[in-house]
Amino acid sequence: LEAKPIKIKEVGPRDGLQNEATFVPTQDKIAWINALSRSGLAYIEVTSFVHPKWIPALADAVEVAAGIERAPGVTYAALVPNEKGLERALAAGVHEVSIFLSASETHNLKNINKTRTETYPILAETAKAALAAGKTVRGYVSTVFGCPYEGVVPVDDVIRVTEALLEMGVAEVSLGDTIGVAHPRQVQEVLEVLLRRFPADRLAMHFHDTRGMAMANVLVSLDMGMTTFDSSLGGLGGCPYAPGASGNIATDDLLYMLHGLGMQTGIDAEKLQAAARFIQEKMGRPLGSHSMQACQS
Ligand code: HMG
Ligand code: MG
Fold first, then answer.
1. Is 239 assigned a catalytic role?
2. How many whole angstroms from 257 Cα to the centroid of ligand 1?
3. Whose CB has fewer CB within 10 Å in the chain, the N or C terminal residue?
4. Which residue has its alpha carbon closest to ligand 1 atom 4?
């Protein structure tokens, strides 16, 4: 593998915390994100402006996004499902918003209470308003490699949703293995199809590690030319509307592999570990990542 710059997008404060039973106090979230900012990460998804009834763990989205320090060169992003969420995100001063939907119909219904067809115009309006406000927009496709309700997801459905997001003006589409079912062969096959239509630099990989396949899936993605990966420090996370989903690939473990391969990330592993120890203490339990377990033993 050729050594090259890799973009790591830290989603721990959003994807990591959204499914945790513990409510992390607002000031602790802010202090954690500030510590992440000091580690050299260039992109942090700090929260989510969804309905607080659906995701109580992030009910303090405005306070968090407005309260963090903005380090120069760091993009602070947040998830928004619609224009109501966008309004709150703009008021809190985020740099980028992420819109999201699922490749599979049932997961989309469970996650955002709409069919895919109903979702398109909502996201298109949200993206249009965000772009008009001078923000960049990112798009997520969930259940790319499998759906907890429908099982196999046809790659044509992934293409359709990805195309729709790009037409809305998103800068990048993040391909979500929501329930961590993908394996290296499948990642290779799906990327072979997608990369015939979309350039690698418009796509990102978002692996959950439910079956321990995330690192192998990153390696295959690197081999296929992918350079942007979402991850969550310590492996925090899951998806509340995907039964059995577990955390994202752990940023600390991912960094260990990437640096071992000679890839450049701009991230300082020691400062990142300090941020991991901070949130571990706040969670009151050992974090799941291998790196954190190794440094506890
Ligand atoms: P709904 O109930 O269908 O919404 O929820 P609605 O438009 O019918 O409105 C109902 C009420 O919600 C109204 O209030 C709205 O104002 C309010 P009322 O008039 O009843 O008082 N409302 C809002 N309030 C605050 N913020 C908002 C908002 N929108 C409407 N943005 C909705 C639709 C999308 C809002 C809801 O289903 C929801 O919040 N879902 C969030 C689900 C979620 O966050 N899932 C996890 C994130 S996705 C994920 O983790 C996957 C990913 O990581 C990639 C991967 O791994 O695959 C990204
Ligand atoms: Mg996710």
1. yes
2. 36
3. C
4. 113
Distance 176 CA to ligand 2 centre (A): 6
Whether the ipTM is more than 0.95: the answer is yes
Per-residue pLDDT of the chain (297 residues; tens, 9 = 90+): 999 999 999 999 999 999 888 899 999 999 999 999 999 999 999 999 999 999 999 999 999 999 999 999 999 999 999 999 999 999 999 999 999 999 999 999 999 999 999 999 999 999 999 999 999 999 999 999 999 999 999 999 999 999 999 999 999 999 999 999 999 999 999 999 999 999 999 999 999 999 999 999 999 999 999 999 999 999 998 655 666 668 999 999 999 999 999 999 999 999 999 999 999 999 988 898 999 999 865
If you measure from the C-alpha of residue 252 to the centroid of ligand 2, how many angstroms do you get, rounded to a whole number? Answer: 17
* Active-site residue, selected from the candidate residues 170, 239, 242, 250: 239
Distance set, CA 175 to CA 30, 94, 98 (Å)? 27, 22, 13
- Give the global pTM: 0.97
